[in-house]
Amino acid sequence: MPPPFRSADSLYEARRSPVLSFLTPLRNFRTLEAIDNKMQAVSNKLAERLGDAPTVVSAEYQPRADGAKMRALAWFGTRDVRLIDAPVPDITEPDDVILKVTGTTICGSDLHLYHGEIVQLQQGDILGHEFMGVVDRVGPNVHNIKVGQRVVASFQIACGECSYCKQQLSSMCDRTNTSGLQNAMYGHRDAGFFGYSHFTGGFPGGQAEYVRVPKGNVNLLPIPDGVADEKALFLSDILPTSYHAVVDVGVKKGDVVGIWGLGPIGQCAARFALMKGASRVIGIDNVPARLAFAREKSGIETLDFSEHTDVVKRIQELVPGGLDIAIDCGTFHQPKSVLHKVEKALILETDVSEIVNEMIVATKKMGSCGIIAAYAGFTNHFNIGALMEKGIRLIGHGQAPVHKYWHELLAMIEAGDFDPLFVVSHRVALEEFPDLYASFDKRLGGVEKVFVSTKFSNPPSAGAPPLSRVADWGNEI
């Protein structure tokens, strides 16, 4: 039976977390943009009060002495990203490496920033956590990376020396993220990430012509000449992330796997699940182009939740007894039900439990569910009873430890066992980034993964999409 209706005020008071209680004044704003932008101001104020956690690296960089400028994409508010002229970074700490960016991209998790849903964003923050480049300068302590070398960066900044880094769990590094607010919310903090708010350290990102890589001797992977940029770039995030989800949740031979969300992570996870021996993979989404892409390019089954609104019922029809494995590769910022839309708009919750609940109910008893989608805070109406009674193994995969997998994945690419080009739908220039965010957010033009080039990029490699303009893609959804 559904819970009795309560007013927004009483529901808020009943469910708010002590950490989120500072958001109370936000209920009175009239627009979502005003709420999101005010949330940033309040979260930054709270973070200032909590103070910074100690780290071994600094997010701020030293500009070049000659005053050189670069083009970079920066955040200025909800759905407000702009190209700016920013100082070109110089060596700031002895372990730094400076890259000329030859390839960057937009990630589904960047949309959380675009919508202002990740706290501690500040106006002028340079975005972007997936990038590669050519080494331009190295610090005096860097001896394994040379000027002129092609490299890809991990999206996380690892120190290379803490207990997590020694296990190659680079995303869990204890020593590179200053966010006291993340410490308060989670009890611990992740590694610092490039271009993903001060909640992850405030490091300028790679949606730019140059980028400073702290601990560059640890966080860069040299790329062999035979691997094209359009393939190497995705070792930065989506390949380790999707592979980590499949490995960590334990997909094995004969499993029936459900994947919620057919963006680039979901598309790659589907292929990796098949490589691990899954007998069937069912992808759940509502974007026609993505559903068609999954069927035609990866040969998986699909479920359109705009057609089958009761996802669990449809899965039970397709898979009597339930899924062996379910993986959430979706997103928390697009609630389906009116209740969650209201609660999220009023900051009564930050994240939505709908996908996780669907997975738990659709998975067989003693099955496993994994979450690789980027959740950030608190959710309501979580079906904890079904989780316990069915004996479901619910696994939060965490941010993928890129360092653990990128050598293995690079070997797969070199051997031809996995070709990331299948997911690259478009190529655009850096100047297109503001339009790209808007288009990617609306899934226009059949967009999947986009290679974004700079003035330092090589021409498109064989089989890669040619350069195009976002305005020419059309409006198919």
Can you walk through the features of this model?
The protein is of the alpha/beta class and 477 residues long. It has two domains: 62-236 and 401-472, Quinone Oxidoreductase, Chain A, domain 1; 239-396, NAD(P)-binding Rossmann-like Domain (Rossmann fold, 3-Layer(aba) Sandwich). It has 16 helices and 20 strands. The strands form six sheets. It has a six-stranded parallel β-sheet, sandwiched between helices. A five-stranded antiparallel β-sheet has the order 11-5-7-8-12. Helix 8 (238-249) crosses helix 9 (264-275). The chain is globular.
Query: Can you tell me the residue ranges where pLDDT is under 50 for at least 5 consecutive residues?
Result: 1-30
Mean pLDDT comes to 90
Main beta sheet strand tally, sense and closure: 6 strands, parallel
By secondary-structure content and strand pairing, the structural class works out as alpha/beta
CATH homologous superfamily placement of the largest domain? Medium-chain alcohol dehydrogenases, catalytic domain
Give the count of structural domains: 2
What overall geometry do the principal axes of the alpha carbons give?
Answer: globular
Number of helices: 16
CATH architecture call of the largest domain? Alpha-Beta Complex
Q: According to CATH, what is the topology of the largest domain?
A: Quinone Oxidoreductase, Chain A, domain 1
Number of strands: 20
Largest sheet: spatial strand order: 15-14-13-16-17-18
Question: How far is the first residue's CA from the last residue's CA?
Answer: 36 Å
Gyration radius from CA atoms, angstroms: 22 Å
Q: Could you tell me the strand content as a percent range? A: 15-25%
